[in-house]
Amino acid sequence: MKHLLLISAIILIGFALMYWLWPQTRSLPIIKQVNMHQLEDVHKDTYEVANGKIKLLSFYYTNCPDICPLTMMDFTDLQNKLKNEGLFGEKVELVAITLDPVHDTKEVIQNYAKLFNADPTGWKWVRGTEEVTKEVADDLQMVYSKLEGGFLAHGTTMYLLDEKNQLRALYDMANPGEPVNTEKIVVDILTLLEN
Mind giving me the DSSP string for 92-127? Predict the structure, then answer.
């Protein structure tokens, strides 16, 4: 009987050690395939969506008084973190899509990007026609509408896409009381790169 208890204990300890010492792999679910349309890169000509890179995508507009500029400041932080990891532009891009292509011309966006020290090698500022912008937003289930005075009401979600343009994670944009959790986003990006 003692031998049986001893063998059982050894087996249980063995399973416990395997569980704790076995490499823990983490993966992000595939939420959906995203159908991106051709967009204009304001620092080049067109933005190549099917470029095999991971993308963190956020919608914004340059007249936005609060959430958009706060989020773009967090994008500046992400830009620095991704550069430190050696990923920025090479394997990962930040993509900012304007919701107001009528007001946000190429020149307006270029000047806005300078406010955040955006490096266009890995931080892509893009725009489309009003129709294309609506199609892209609808595909991501991002709702927005025009208000008086040149303002927009819009959703506050950011989207992490993998190399195949599959949606893998959603994040909240910044607000005055809570910045973007850039650490979690970098961890998720690294997870995608490992899998």
Answer: EEEEEEES-TTTS-HHHHHHHHHTTT--TTTEEEEE
DSSP annotation of 168: E
Strand partners, 55: 93, 161
Per-residue pLDDT reduced to its tens digit, 117-130: 999 999 999 999 99
Domain count, the chain: 1
The SS3 of residue 141 is: coil
Token pair recorded at residue 126? 């893009």
pTM of the model: 0.84
Q: Which residue stretches of the chain have pLDDT < 50? A: 3-9, 11-12, 14-25
Contact 174, 74 (CB under 8 A): yes
Confirm whether 22 is domain-assigned: no
